[in-house]
Amino acid sequence: MTGVRLRNRLYGLFLLVCVASLGWPIYPLLGSRIEPFILGVPFSLFWMIGWAGLSFLALLIYDRTGPR
Amino acid sequence: MDSRLQILAISGAYLLACLILGMVPGRKSGTGATGYVAGDRSLGIVLMYFITGATIFSSFAFLGGPGWAYSRGAAAFYILGYGVLGMVPFYFLGPRAARVARKYGFVTQAEMVAHRYGSPAVAGLMAVVSVVAFVPYLALQMKGAGYVLSAVTEGKVPDWAGAALVYGVVLIYVLRSGVLGVGWTNTFQGIFMMAMAWGLGLYLPARLYGGVGEMFRQISEVRPELLLAPGLDAAGEVWSWGEFTSAVLVSIVGFSAWPHLFMKAFTARSDRIIRRTVLLYPTFQIFLVPLFFIGFAGVLYPGSPDSPDQILLYMILDMRIPAVVVGLFCAGALAASMSSGDAMVHAAASVAVRDGWVAALGRNLTPGKEKAAIRWMVVVVMGLAYAVAVSYKGSLVALLLSAYGAVVQFTPVLVAALYIKRSTGPGVVAGVLAGSLITLLFVLYPDVRPWPIHAGLYGLVANVATIWAVSMLTPEFRSSGRDAFLRIASE
Predict the structure, then answer these.
(1) Which residue of A has its CA nearest to B274?
(2) Domains of chain B as residue ranges with CATH
(3) Per the CB < 8 Å rule, is B241 touching A22?
(4) B202 close to A (CB below 8 A)
């Protein structure tokens, strides 16, 4: 039971950080810059692609650690 | 062969392929509404993946996405941003809804909510809001298709004829095959769309600048403001973080509440498949990236189209690239329009009959009659949207924004119905009304907003507060049915 609760808490925490990173306040603070270019795209675009990847990984872990 | 004929031949072949694919599954689905609307709850992961993914990517993504990147720069990243979490609510709500639907036989979200509260009024309200929202949305897809065909043929195929041709095909396969027709064609269209987006998204920067990296380097020297979030607003001024962030939030919350998406929970073979569809969704989302490349490729391109949405077509026609490529692009744009339009018309007709006629007005129909009624509604909705598309000269986008604001208000209702025992029917009706009206007010009069943030966010706050307050003030809806409903949902 505590394992399930920990998993839910961690995923909830991830969602909070993720939402805050998709706009104000974390995106302007850390993400919205042109340099460095990564894979040819400016960092501000890479930031969003990166969060799409992280969100996928987080949900994958959440899904795999769930009951059944 | 004349290049215009080549383009038309490719588009025609594409439409024919969709028609054939859409006709095939017609013989397979069962009789009655469950077969026609929910595909007998038999869909596997491939169909579910494409039916949701391709439905989301509409004319707006294909033409509007590049248009935003071109004219507003990093503001377009918000479309990518909300997609990062947009399907996540569906991971939790979808399987719950599917479980109660299997038990009680629901095929739409409103009849589920109405059953939960024993309130036909909820179903009626949601049916009206959904249909009112779908008509301008569908009209916009039709306009997109008509516009593309008329542009690539230099007006030889007028807008109204192009839209009629494309949506004639959609009408035929939706009528015949229902949700399976939507699913099969969307699989084909989704693959096609992704291939076209990546193809053009890499080809245009390579041809114009020698590569994606070089393109962004040049833009960063000449127009660096386009590469910094939150980008620009429609007037070309720097957009505000409040608007950007609240637009992302509202879209994340409201995304999965759209009936044509949410109803797909009822088509899945199992809960597992719904979860996996959400999990895989970001792979579809990444397909926005090449569409942004196309828009950015236009930034330093000499000359400019009449409106930003036309940047892709403008470059393609101006660059004199081979007719085959233009034809393929044209088919890709039709795919984007059709794969969303088919799901919308199918959902709107199902909602009108199941929620409006059966659930709200209490007219029971035999399964055969119900299927027939939904098919008639498909024709009616399609005709209505077509009339709006060819005759309405005002801004469809404004109409759509107002409608969108109302549909977003369904999410708190779905959460209340599936999770919160103490919520009541009058509570959710009042919530949707309050949320929709507040949103509409601020969409129409943006200057009266207390802070410059998305109108829908005010609506959502009002909605949640109203559901809570009115539910507390109205007597609890106690019934063994409610308890069974919530138990099945959480199993």
Answers:
(1) A63
(2) 3-400 (1.20.1730.10)
(3) no
(4) no
Mutate one of B82, B84, B239 to test the A interface: name it (highest A CB count within 10 A): B84
pLDDT number for residue B398:
67
* pLDDT, tens digit, 9 for 90 and up, residues B46-61: 888 888 888 877 777 7
Instruction: Tell if the CB–CB gap between A23 and B74 is shorter than 8 Å.
Output: no
Disruptive mutation site among A21, A57, A59 for chain B (greatest number of B CBs within 10 Å): A59
**Structural domain boundaries enclosing A12:** 2-64
Residue B31: predicted pLDDT: 66
Residue ranges of chain B whose pLDDT lies below 70: 1, 27-31, 394-399, 401
The interface residues of chain B toward chain A in range 211-230, judged by CB-CB distance below 8 A, are 211-213, 216-217, 220, 224, 227-230
A12 close contact with B: CB closer than 8 A: no
Asked casually if ipTM beats, i.e. exceeds, 0.90, the reply is yes
pLDDT in tens, chain A (68 residues): 578 889 999 999 999 999 999 999 999 999 899 989 999 999 999 999 999 999 999 999 999 998 76
Number of domains forming the structure of chain A: 1
Q: What is the pLDDT of residue B395?
A: 65
Q: Which CB contacts under 8 angstroms, 24+ apart, belong to B200-206? A: B200/B290, B200/B294, B200/B312, B200/B316, B200/B329, B200/B332, B201/B289, B201/B290, B201/B291, B201/B292, B201/B293, B201/B294, B202/B290, B202/B293, B203/B325, B204/B293, B204/B294, B204/B297, B204/B315, B205/B293, B205/B296, B205/B297
